[in-house]
Amino acid sequence: MVRMTVLRKGCLCLLVFVLILLFLVPVTAEQEPMGYFEVKSNPQGADVLVNGKFAGETPVIAPVRTMNTNGTVIRIMMQGFQIWEQIYNQSPSSGEVVPIQAVLSPVSTVGSLKVSSTPSGAMVTVDNGNGQMAPWTYQDLPTGSHLVSLFMVGYEPYVKTVEIHPGEITELAADMTLRKESGTLEISSDPGGATAYVDGVHVGTTNLVVGNLPPGRHEVKIAHAGNDDYVEWLSVQNQATTKVHAVLKPVSATSGGFVVVTTEPPGASVFLDDEYQGLTETGKPLEISNVTPGSHRIYVSSKNYEDYEAMAVVTSGTITPVTVQMNPSPMPQACGLVIVSSDPAGADIMIDGQIRGTTPATIETLNSGRHTYSIRLAGYQEYNSSLDIIPGQVLQINTVLTSDSNTSGSRGKGIPGPTPLLIIGVIVGMGFLFSRKI
Question: pTM score > 0.70 for this model?
Fold first, then answer.
């Protein structure tokens, strides 16, 4: 009889232990409730990582613990597109579903190249194209390797291959080297004030001295509106000065025409039919002589100003004036542009502590460099972050605002787990019934 009583008591203890194990998992799940991020992207099919762990491809619903106080990092990646990443400081409430809509931006296929020279004023070409005067910034260059060449009278040519990275600005500072052996040209003209070229490169206005030329033969061209061009080949000796004086003759009936370009402000680069002609100067226009009669494309470019383009009709022996009033560029080369949107829309945009509009909005002429910004909307948590702008960049910001409300969202259908009190009641009741039978 005693053995039977002990056996029954052991069975009762075993029953209690089994019941505790059966209900232990539901109790733990109730103590760690889950919220959800519903992640969508345009285009779809992007990989989603939640705190560094793969959660699936968009569209996907990613569960997160509501007790997480370290914030949630959601990263969306897709080949051919920039990485989209946001940090959510507050986790969804138990059963709440927070929507995230990410618009992926294609990876840029172009970059920028900023070229400077010491001394400044060197002629720069990229891939043997049209020349520009350093310093100069080339925009929208295809990514990859490019051949950059700099030329300056009296200096050795500077040639280097640079790598252009997508969406980035590459800087090249060329330290020009003086020629070891060189001579000098002293150029004058009658009348004075003519435009002088040495080996096709614009060197200034007569009368002038051009030094540091490599020994050997050089072409000297002197042009003045209303006169025929003066062209002569001269031999320059090492450590010697060669003089040339051009007596310009009035234009003949069979000569070409002249294009005289004046810009305000001066210092603009002038191209005739895509060939570089030189820079306009303060108080003196750029004269282009011996232009074939007919229609020609005039293109004028200057940093931080809109490009100018026009057609000029040139006739033999006459001067065609071109006067250009340069308009400031809506996006200077030292600025970028930011497109800001939020879900929901209508939030205030603060950049560096100043209101710049409400979402969705396009913020133009934002100076290059680092900026802080915040997005504010009543009833939602303020979003704060920072951004880096490079010259000419277009940056897109998409933000999903988190509600200040702690109200839980809709729960999925299911059977809720039993509470600890219910478990204890079941155990006590079954123990009581079992003892009555004993």
Answer: no
